[in-house]
Amino acid sequence: MFWHILAQPELWAATLAMATPLALPALGGTFSERSGVVNIAMEGIMLIGAFFGVYAACLTHSAWLGMLGGIIMGAVMSLIFAWVTVSIGADQVVVGMGVNIFAAGLTTFLLNMIFGYGGTPTSTPHLPNIHIPGLSQVPFIGPVLGQQNVVVYIMLLAVIASHYFLFHTNLGLRLRAVGENPQAADTAGINVWNMRYLGVIIGGMLSSLGGVYLSLGLLNSFEPNMSSGRGYIALAAMIFGKWTPFGSLGAALLFGFSTALSMYLQGTGNISTNIIQMLPYALTILALVGLVGRSTEPAADGIPYEPNK
What we know:
This protein is mostly helical.
């Protein structure tokens, strides 16, 4: 029976859909932490992107402008986070938790103030699903890859582009350098603060896109705390993926698969869905202790730096 379930393309299509709002913030966290800034604010930034994406879409009557608005607001929140943690040198974990709490309260307040207790309108524009001609007709692969929301394809392209940027460009090398040895990078003439700002802001834009996907791609509405801890799960996916774009995607797919499988098995009674959903977290813990491949963060991750004068 289990092999019969695995042969269902709907399961793998749902896996990819469920992995997208995890892969995007995990990818964003990779940029931030590769530059040396611990970013657990992804949960809050996802909420910011989700709410302001819906708000901008309602104002402009365009889901695309809504997506742009959500990304911009995520970048603004990330800029504030970077200023407090990089320039001022505040504790990155404490500030990140503060952003999460602030975002949860702010978005709930604005939801009630702007839209009332009835919630966002059902007429809110939504991001389209894309049917790729030819590919969508291929057996098995078509239902999995050929008929997804546009953000899913953006996520896949972002993973490829991020890998190339981080590991095959001079700017990516500089960003990674400040996360490993900021003093040496500073001595070599690299502006450590600028690189860290860049990593945090790119990370925020990707995280907010994950939130936009939830509100304009999947649900076509905003609900309080609709990220439901996905920012924290993305953090685990990033760690399990060893701070690499493709690794983060693979870990997000694992988490997405556990979610999709648990949904698929609900009501069968053959196996507890809680056990299935627990598996990725257990693997993450094993990775952290070095039992499933060693997972080592950038050497200067979480350490504030004062540039040479």
